[in-house]
Amino acid sequence: MPQLQFSNLNGSWKGNDYKTVSITSVSVGGGKPLAYVFMTHMNVDFDGAPNCYGPPEKHPLDSLENAGRNGARGYYGLIAVDPKSPEKTVHKLKLDERFPDTLGKCPVVQQTGPYAGFFVSTTSKKAKGGSPSRYEQSHYIDSGSIPFCALSYGLASNGIGDQDLGIALRLDKYKHATFHFMGGEGHGKGSAGAGAVGECSYKTFLDIGGSPKTAAQKYANNSFPTVFIVFPGSQSAQLIAISMADASEDFAAFLAIQAKVDAASRGKSGLQAFNDYIAGGRQNKPASYPSIVAALRPFGYVPNSNGASIGGLIGAMAAMAAASR
């Protein structure tokens, strides 16, 4: 089998707390990219959670400023209606007129359920089995229960599509979370955030071991080292294909080296240090190599310097099947 090929993915990338992000493309023998790898702190997206937005006395997860209240376009993260509009009467809406946006629209209040009094927060996708009414919270995918990652224009233009799979690996505890990209949720073409990466739902953040946000916190504590592995054009992990390449150990070695470089210089590419490692004969694998291999094994990664063994791959496929049940 051909060897793995690692190269920089051109673009202007940025993440939460990271002014710049480097993305590395991984392919086999120069073929189409099987994975993109990057590091940034997770940007937690609360939109769609029933307790995302609300009045201060409710201690919501996010602020109305982040819902667009003070922007030129007004609210965009929640449903808001002009109090003078017939819409309010026709749909029997309750508005909180204490918090108008720059256009005079006021948030629609949830009137029933455990989060009555909070505002109706939106996402770009409808929830399966939810209310048909856009004024009801259950109409929208819940960020607190569905793992997803926002799909920005930059990633989309490089082959990442709606529902493609990604893995977030937390490197201080080697915990992982899986997610699918959500088209329409990220920054669009020409926007300042077109190259944004790592914006994930609250559920993804909790799955990776993030501590639940408290009322005393302005932001959730996301300050742990996280590597993202995303699979362009695929709704499954491509780690079995990576395992079948010659010197497939290089994938985990690169992740470990990238993490070490990032710890020393946030956002810097680890590709040069990795190339030095290869040129030096792959001596002295990084200390975190075994832990990274163990963390990725459930997704089909069984490295071997001469390609993955059939027995190892069968075991990994069985683990993947068990994890999906």
Write a structural description:
This protein has helices at residues 86-90, 153-156, 202-207, 239-243, 249-264, 271-279, 289-296, 310-324; strands spanning 4-8, 23-28, 35-39, 43-45, 80-81, 106-107, 148-150, 165-170, 175-182, 199-201, 226-230. The chain contains eight helices and eleven strands. The longest helix has 16 residues, at 249-264. The protein is an alpha+beta fold and 325 residues long. It is elongated and about 70 Å long. Helix 5 (249-264) crosses helix 7 (289-296). The strands form three sheets. It has a seven-stranded mixed β-sheet. Strands 4-10 form a two-stranded parallel ribbon. The chain has two domains: 4-38 and 159-183 and 224-324, no CATH class; 49-142, no CATH class.
Overview in brief:
Helix content is 21%, strand content 15%.
What is the fold's blueprint, element by element?
Layout: E1 4-8, E2 23-28, E3 35-39, E4 43-45, E5 80-81, H1 86-90, E6 106-107, E7 148-150, H2 153-156, E8 165-170, E9 175-182, E10 199-201, H3 202-207, E11 226-230, H4 239-243, H5 249-264, H6 271-279, H7 289-296, H8 310-324
Parallel strand pairs: 4-10, 7-9
Antiparallel strand pairs: 1-2, 2-3, 3-11, 5-6, 8-9, 8-11
Helix pairs in contact: 5-7
